[in-house]
Amino acid sequence: MILPLFPSPKNPSSSFQNTRRHLLRSDSKSSNPNARMRLYDDLLLNGYYTTRLWIGTPPQRFALIVDTGSTVTYVPCATCEQCGRHQDPKFQPESSSTYQSVKCNSDCNCDKSRVQCIYERQYAEMSSSRGVLGEDILSFGNQSELVPQRAVFGCENEETGDLYSQRADGIMGLGRGDLSVVDQLVEKGVISDSFSLCYGGMDIGGGAMVLGGISAPSDMFFTHSDPVRRYFRDGNSPYYNIDLKEIHVAGKQLPLDPSIFDEKHGTVLDSGTTYAYLPEAAFVAFKNAIIKELDSLKQIRGPDPNYIDICFSSGSSNVNVSELSKIFPTVELVFGNQKKLLLSPENYLFRHSKVRGSYCLGIFQNEKDLTTLLGGIIVRNTLVTYDREHSKIGFWKTNCSEISERLHRTGGSSSSSGKDNSTVESPTTSAAGGSSRYALPGEIQIGEIRLDMSLSINNSYLKPRINELTDFIAIELEINASQVRLLNFTSEGNSSLVRWAIVPSESSTYISNVTAISIISLLAEHRVKFPVTFGNYKLVQWKVKPNSQQPWRQKHYSTVILSIIIVIIVGLSASAAWVIWRHRQRNINSYKPVHVAVPEQELQPLES
């Protein structure tokens, strides 16, 4: 089940920081490594979250939607004439020295000539994917402890619907099933039977994924996930069910029979679906409870006239995500073990795209389907661990964008002080020795990496394609597009000299040393492969500037001290002036010249 898919303030507490560092380790009870992978895109802007997967030898990169509701991973094949235009080039089997087609056998569906195994997937929003099965080496990126592994995947020959029109290349299937990438890795014994997803919050996006076990936070709670469902022919569901029993709005339980959440497929947690969908009775009760709590807000039309959205004006065009909980009620999902998942407003609202300061319900009626479907919006800023080995799913509220940054900084936390204000720069030449030769002087908090790059194409050809190149560099360096800024580009004969700046992400105030060295070495050693249209490149020079964004107290320390001193001096001066004035007034009132008449005092009668 997939619909056209798809960041909370930082927690400064030391316990949170320690937990995040602990999170990145593999499960201490298991000797297996894990594959740590970054998530990209935004739930509501793009309709999905993607990760990067490399297939073949040499590796060919793909942006894949992470989908717990799909059981096969697939990408467009080079021979596909009915595939849309996507983010990356199609997979070319003939260019991979390790590719093998999966021959027809008794365990698969075969093509008409009974030569190759085939697959076919159809989804709820009427899109579909068809193709052949192949086997090749999958690589999980440079953040992964897990080495590349051989696995079976789909090579698409036909796409329809949203799968055809979306920018993402394909699907990474994380559901239960023999073709699922998780099942294949578990079957090989290279990871524990578990994986985790953490989706970024409203307006931030991104996040993190870990294939394999992690050391779960101590305050993560779990609910039972039963893979056995009578609805399926073999009794086993490919979906991840949870034992939902109640929904509370503003602390009040909705008047619903708990069995409503156990109809058909039950309550399914599906990362490939954008919103949440409830059976009719549950949706009506939820909608009415929300409207009752928001009776003071004006209800407005939704952004799309083709849909009947339930939207509210907050009364202010400048309301931000952190203030939504003051306006909208909290919602709780209560499970069979009485554990509660708290949903803040960003977990059930989406921003109105046409009216500033207005928000709409991201929970809808599931037509006439009795399944309760909980999509990505429900688990924004929530670490979700799918512990398949023990048939349970864990939830932990956190800042998923910070976890994403932690995954990206593979060297762990930075202990830099940021006191070094010198600019570090170096000419770059290609040489052996790895990234260690791009050493920085101690641990500094980096505010900008400046890169001078020479391209073997002329200015007139580059100019209309510069935005495309900017997006490509961001993808290759595994950073957000907003972090790559074009400073200028000039012509050098038939070549172009381009100057870029890499800046911290919106969720961070600096770039760590590890990340900076990784970016510089990737470009200096030509491990970033540009499309043929941009010719050859050379990193001519790089420069690192420390972060100038000091904490407020540090930045304004002298101003504050000077202001305090001035206030003290002015206060003392005013006090002294007042004392002198009072003293003079007292002297004036007590002295009377001899010739001045003194008014007679009224005599009071004596009592006898």
Beta strands, count: 33
What is the terminal separation in angstroms? 110 Å
Mean pLDDT metric: 82
Count of the domains: 3
Q: Superfamily at the CATH H level of the largest domain?
A: Acid Proteases
**Overall 3D shape:** globular
**CATH hierarchy, class of the largest domain:** Mainly Beta
CATH-assigned fold name of the largest domain: Cathepsin D, subunit A, domain 1
User: What's the tally of helices?
Assistant: 10
Beta-strand residue percentage: 25-35%
Task: Indicate the low-confidence ranges by residue numbers.
Answer: 1-26, 407-422, 427-436, 598-608
Architecture of the largest domain, according to CATH? Beta Barrel
Largest sheet: 9 strands, mixed
- Secondary structure class reads alpha+beta
Question: Radius of gyration over alpha carbons?
Answer: 32 Å
Task: Tag the structure with descriptive keywords.
hydrolase; six-stranded antiparallel β-sheet; aspartic-type endopeptidase activity; glycoprotein; 10 helices; disordered C terminus; 608 residues; nine-stranded mixed β-sheet; alpha+beta; Cathepsin D, subunit A, domain 1; transmembrane helix
